[in-house]
């Protein structure tokens, strides 16, 4: 059977997510995302006829689900283990990229949208953050935290980790993430009943 030369849709989306995580959305063209994924521009437009915003939206959703799968798996062992996995995932990304990559969801979320418009990628970023918060809050509740406290702590975890990833990139050091990990773990341990 002949080898397929057309790159898969998923590979293009994954490449776009990686590119956005490194350069942000505004600084990345669809042409650069296609090139980064080693995909012809024509194939990229075939899969994403609405262009850059459609591809960016899919990249955000792809990242969101990729992280959520890891979270779901680790949260089966409890919120502390889920937190550790969430932190380890982002630590691995920033360290292995030599502090050049962060979170594409955050990168899209901090872009200035056009006036009076919520681009689909920004709406997807909000959904992804909410999904991660929901997963963490559910695990916290299952382990004895009160509902409101669980929801607030889940928001704090997502916000702290996302912000700390940006700090690690700026400082070219994983120390902010390690410090944040220690404090977040103490907070989680303090609200759950083992």
Write structural notes for this entry.
The protein has 194 residues and is mainly alpha-helical. Helix content is 73%, strand content 0%. The chain has 9 helices and no strands. Helix 4 packs parallel to helix 7 (120-142) and helix 7 (120-142) crosses helix 8. The radius of gyration is 18 Å and the shape is elongated. 37% of the residues are buried.
Could you outline the blueprint of secondary structure elements for this entry?
Blueprint: H1 9-23, H2 30-36, H3 41-47, H4 52-75, H5 79-96, H6 104-109, H7 120-142, H8 147-171, H9 175-191
Mean pLDDT: 92
SS strand fraction: under 5%
Q: Helix and strand string, N-terminal first?
A: HHHHHHHHH
> How many strand units?
0
Rg from alpha-carbon coordinates: 18 Å
**pLDDT under 50 segments (min length 5)?**
1-6
Please outline the major beta sheet.
Answer: none
Task: Give a summary of the structure in a few sentences.
This protein is mainly alpha-helical and about 190 residues long.
Keywords:
single chain; 194 residues; mainly alpha; disordered N terminus
